[in-house]
């Protein structure tokens, strides 16, 4: 895309020698930015010597333009800030607007979309105030680019089309070219490739006529991609060959990278694999060096496809994983950017209204007696604020909530309840001083998230609340809640420790969720409890029925405590089989709850409740001991069988977990290598260093470790080199469904099997549900499998029937393995 920093509109009179040189240097930016920068430095020195502040400001501002075209954004920012200072001194608003414009586009390129949009809006405001239509068009063009960067291509097309119309009225060749290229790019991303190619063919003569080499490079890079998308591979390669020297000479590395990626794609399609690899790998290196994340993501995908064509599966997998990880990061960033861009205009207007209210309140207060006012303020502060964090306290929060609920004429009232997830672990492991400092820092971040006029309070412990008056609807409150989660996601530095903390947020909005403080607090609390139930680090807005769900969850927690006392839990065992021979190789122990009233309750319902309530400790210990006891009863270690036990993240994080495992082994009298502890990827990735230490303690006991659900999370290949494990369990989602014709899942499955074997790990495929699955795994060389087709989870007395398959393994067809579990 072509971001338009400026077009030739030098304010100095043409007859002035400095003005003429500034015009010439400005035109040169689009063909030779480095030479233009050198000329502008000389002009700046001449302007300083002559005491011409306006020319000096223009020279500094244009240096910022040249630096931007060279992707040297921080230096461009410094020049733009200095240009604004000079423009304010000499009263030149046009230079001020243009420098703000460079700051805006630079912020966008560096990923700060909030600042980018704010700069653009400020540019637009000043340009409209001084009647500068040229700068209005420039800002509209850049707003279109911002929209394009967050995927809003239709809105972007509308903005850049308006910019083009202004450029036509202004007879501004450079602005017209920039907006035309942005229209072309919008057509490309809307997959209107023929329209993009037609527009490029029309505009190429104009670009070359005025020697706009920067613009030509930008346009031709997208033309090469459009040619590729329309199957014109040779034409795409020829165009890239022709334009690449020009791109390197111009020096805008973003567009060099884009052109090389198109060249690499075309060479790949032409089966010129080595040349394609060179172009794509070169582009990847520059993209990473210049932090061009979106281009880096695309190139990783192209390289993965290229390596797959060359049957270099390991490298294809590596590029594919990097592509997926970066895609996830960019998707999250795009969502946040989209929210910020869409809300910034609203926030600006709301801040203006709040500032006016604040000014009026201050004017009224200034009329009171100063001494009495200070005394009252001091007493009020102590009565209304939390001593630890300086936030408002519970009493003040309730009073303010009641006041706002009494008059909702200004809009709806949002109430957010925020509870920090697993804060108790910080206090228990690092002490209350660290916990108190963490709470204070959380309070500071909450202050930074809200608007003027919003209220932030600490209710006690690790519970905070926000009061948001003047909302349009519940979505405004949810947007603030998501900003809170994003703020909390950044690490905290407390007492020499780097801490990661998340929050669960419940949202209630008046009048629909209540008109009194008691009801609103209850509903916000219920919604917060639902956020915790749904996995923490989440936002939930109250809805009818949540109260019943919360009550049911509390009943479940009460019954869970009774179940532990009454011995209502049982273990079922699912067999694991050698794929080649069909022989039994081990069992996985799966906990079941036989409720006296509700019957069998699935683990998915009660395990999260056990984790949140602290009951996972005693439950997990019971499962571990019972599984070891059953392994002894089956003489599993003598028969060479393993007993796999799932470990909860909460259970794994406890300091005495290794000791509990050792006690279970000693109590049952089985060899440690018989026990396989299964952990999910997410359990390890939360804190790899701490998890590795815990795994080393467990391995020192002699037990084995399995990484469960491998391939579904965001783990990197390097993780397998650094953590001590014995087994990979491939998630069932990678096995094809009955109507699944997509072969990519099978390719990925094969890569996972090969990866495990290369690391000398036992690979277990889960979810085998038919003979086709078993045949596919046998063909891939996967050593071990489990699933309903082989054996359902069975009570111990039924699972015993599988033991003879150790001595006499048979081809997989035995109907007795399809026994019902109940």
From TrEMBL:
Residue stretches making up the GGDEF domain: 411-544
One family name in Pfam for this protein: GGDEF
Protein name per Swiss-Prot or TrEMBL: Putative diguanylate cyclase/phosphodiesterase
InterPro entries cross-referenced by the UniProt entry: Biofilm_reg_signaling, EAL_dom, EAL_sf, GGDEF_dom, Nucleotide_cyclase, Rev_trsase/Diguanyl_cyclase, TPR-like_helical_dom_sf, TPR_rpt
Record has Protein biosynthesis as a keyword: no
Coiled coil: 341-375
CDD domains attached to this UniProt entry: EAL, GGDEF
């Amino acid at each position: 895309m072509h971001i338009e920093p400026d077009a030739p509109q030098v304010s100095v009179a043409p007859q002035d020698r400095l003005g003429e040189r500034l015009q010439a240097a400005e035109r040169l930016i689009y063909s030779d930015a480095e030479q233009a920068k050198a000329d502008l430095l000389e002009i700046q020195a001449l302007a300083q010597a002559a005491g011409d502040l306006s020319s000096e400001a223009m020279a500094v501002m244009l240096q910022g333009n040249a630096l931007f075209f060279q992707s040297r954004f921080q230096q461009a920012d410094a020049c733009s800030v200095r240009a604004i200072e000079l423009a304010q001194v000499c009263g030149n608003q046009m230079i001020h607007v243009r420098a703000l414009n460079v700051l805006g586009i630079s912020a966008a390129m560096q990923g700060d979309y909030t600042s980018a949009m704010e700069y653009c809006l400020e540019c637009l405001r000043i340009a409209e105030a001084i009647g500068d239509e040229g700068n209005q068009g420039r800002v509209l063009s850049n707003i279109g680019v911002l929209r394009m960067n967050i995927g809003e291509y239709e809105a972007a097309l509308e903005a850049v089309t308006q910019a083009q119309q202004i450029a036509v009225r202004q007879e501004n060749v450079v602005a017209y070219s920039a907006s035309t290229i942005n229209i072309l790019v919008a057509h490309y991303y809307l997959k209107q490739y023929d329209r993009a190619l037609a527009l490029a063919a029309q505009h190429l003569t104009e670009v070359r006529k005025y020697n706009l080499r920067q613009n030509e490079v930008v346009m031709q890079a997208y033309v090469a991609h459009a040619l590729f998308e329309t199957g014109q591979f040779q034409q795409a390669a020829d165009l890239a060959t022709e334009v690449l020297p020009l791109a390197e000479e111009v020096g805008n590395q973003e567009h060099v990278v884009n052109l090389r990626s198109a060249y690499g794609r075309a060479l790949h399609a032409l089966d010129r694999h080595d040349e394609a690899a060179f172009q794509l790998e070169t582009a990847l290196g520059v993209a990473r060096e210049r932090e061009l994340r979106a281009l880096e993501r695309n190139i990783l995908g192209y390289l993965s496809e290229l390596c797959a064509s060359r049957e270099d599966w390991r490298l294809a997998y590596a590029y594919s994983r990097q592509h997926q990880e970066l895609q996830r990061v960019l998707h999250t960033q795009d969502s946040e950017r989209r929210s910020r861009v869409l809300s910034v205009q609203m926030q600006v207007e709301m801040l203006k209204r709040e500032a006016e209210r604040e000014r009026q309140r201050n004017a009224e207060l200034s009329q009171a007696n100063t001494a009495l006012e200070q005394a009252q303020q001091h007493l009020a502060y102590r009565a209304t604020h939390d001593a630890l964090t300086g936030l408002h306290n519970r009493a003040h929060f309730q009073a303010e909530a009641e006041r706002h609920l009494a008059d909702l004429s200004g809009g709806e009232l949002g109430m957010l309840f925020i509870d920090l997830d697993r804060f108790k672990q910080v206090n228990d492991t690092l002490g209350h001083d660290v916990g108190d400092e963490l709470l204070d820092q959380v309070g500071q971040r909450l202050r930074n998230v809200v608007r003027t006029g919003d209220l932030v309070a600490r209710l006690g412990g690790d519970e905070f609340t926000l009061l948001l008056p003047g909302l349009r609807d519940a979505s405004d409150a949810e947007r603030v809640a998501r900003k809170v989660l994003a703020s909390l996601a950044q690490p905290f530095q407390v007492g020499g420790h780097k801490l990661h903390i998340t929050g669960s947020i419940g949202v209630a909005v008046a009048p629909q969720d209540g008109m009194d403080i008691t009801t609103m607090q209850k509903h916000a609390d219920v919604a917060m409890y639902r956020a915790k139930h749904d996995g923490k680090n989440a936002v939930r807005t109250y809805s009818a029925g949540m109260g019943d769900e919360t009550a049911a969850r509390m009943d479940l927690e009460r019954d869970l405590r009774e179940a532990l006392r009454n011995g209502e839990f049982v273990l079922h065992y699912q067999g694991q089989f050698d794929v080649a021979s069909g022989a039994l190789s081990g069992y996985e122990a799966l906990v079941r709850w036989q409720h006296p009233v509700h019957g069998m309750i699935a683990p998915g319902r009660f395990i999260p409740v056990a984790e949140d309530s602290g009951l996972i400790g005693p439950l997990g210990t019971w499962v571990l001991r019972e599984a070891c006891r059953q392994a002894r009863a089956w003489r599993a270690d003598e028969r060479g069988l393993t007993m796999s036990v799932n470990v909860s993240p909460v259970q794994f994080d406890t300091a005495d977990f290794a000791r509990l495992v050792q006690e279970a082994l000693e109590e049952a009298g089985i060899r440690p290598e018989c026990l396989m502890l299964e952990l999910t990827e997410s359990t390890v990735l939360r804190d790899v260093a701490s998890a590795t230490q815990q795994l080393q303690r467990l391995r020192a006991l002699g037990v084995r470790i399995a990484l469960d659900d491998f391939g579904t999370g965001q783990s990197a290949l390097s993780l397998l080199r650094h953590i001590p494990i014995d087994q990979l369990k491939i998630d069932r989602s990678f096995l094809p469904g009955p109507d699944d014709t997509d072969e990519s899942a099978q390719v990925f499955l094969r890569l996972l099997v090969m990866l495990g074997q290369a690391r000398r790990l036992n690979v277990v495929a889960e979810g085998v549900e038919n003979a086709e699955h078993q045949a596919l795994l046998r063909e891939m060389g996967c050593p071990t499998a489990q699933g309903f087709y082989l054996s359902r989870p069975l009570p111990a007395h039924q699972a015993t029937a599988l033991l003879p398959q150790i001595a006499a393994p048979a081809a997989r067809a035995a109907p007795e393995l399809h026994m019902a579990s109940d």
